[in-house]
Amino acid sequence: MEGIKPPVLPLRLVPLLAVACGLLIANLYFIQPIADLVATDFRIPRQQVGLLTTLPLAGYGSGLLLVVPLGDLVENRQLILVMTTTEAICSALLWFVGQPGLFLGIGFVAGVSASAIQVIMPYVSQLLPAERQGRAVANLVSGVMLGIMLARPASSFIADTLAWRSVFLIAAALMALMTAILFISLPVRRPSGAQTYGELMRSMGDIFRKTEILRRRAYYHAAMFGSFICFWTAVPLWLAEAPFNLSQGGIAWVALAGVAGAIVPPVASRLVDQGYSRAATAGAMILAMLAFGATLLASRGIVTIVVIAAIVLDGAVSANLVFGQRAIYALAPEQRGPMNALYIAIFFVGGSVASASAAWSFAHFDWPGVVVVGVLLPLSALLYSFSEETSPCLASASSSQAGSVEIFTVDFRERLSSDLPCPEKRPQSGPPCPPRPD
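The structure corresponding to this sequence follows.
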């Protein structure tokens, strides 16, 4: 009806939803620093400890692909509440369940329900005026980043003060409280539902198949995020042993150092604005490899080296996330949601695989084995990035002026700058390029 206005989200709810996003993502990371304690209680073999951290991440990736698309079909408020309620129930079950298989299965379901984050973000965008959407989504992303960075130290401190099961009891209470507040506060949003669920799935497959930058950037960050998860899966196990012999409190302080990575995304965004996306991406990959490799110098018990490596690694991975999302967002605004869901789902799958690999490597080859995995992942992404072609216009120009120093210089600069298939500045030969998207 023409007289009915769509609901508008009160601005006071944006910080609340940012906290909700932070709590949801934190539930994926609480297990990482206490995985050894959980494995000891459940008598899980050391080489299988990675399953504790792998399954929540795999669940999150599955939720992005299979559950989040429902946000285009069903009423959003109801979907968000169902998912946050499920998250609260899963956390409560993790608190008292006594069977390791059941614990692992519940962890996977908790990961699926945590993907409510990617329902909340478009929900907020749809219910706000265009001029306020960018700032609101930035607040939500900040909530997610803080949730990731604070989850590990919070989990360690709680486990050191109380017991590891208390982590999940507190998480369940916070999620239950948040769900009750959202139930009272959130307005209804009914999507148009122009497509069926099957059509949405097929369209996502088509987008992935036809968009090379999406595939590339998804692999780049799957490798980088895998290195990040590899580090944080194994480093608590390493620091708990000789020569470090850190308590859970000590491990928490090391994990807290990763919060320093929060200063990197704004810097990374400026680098993209200045046209250094490719060079900065390569730099982030190299920094991740150097950070991981530097930890071998800490083998005599020098915790400071581990802390510095954690800060550098977290910063490199955070920057690469910005580079990838900016490249994807520059492609097709009408497909931004599905592209972002595919991008995040793929790199979370990479993280889950790396988590399992890290635990296996640590059990069989100790920390040096983990370093090999952590270095090879970004190295594979760096080598893959070398195959990324520049603009077809530039290639044509280069072939018509083979041997020109000017063309070589421009080609090198193009390779270091934009992910876009046809940058604006180029030699004035060869076919014209379409305008660069905003």
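Confidence is low (pLDDT under 50) at residues 391-416, 421-438.
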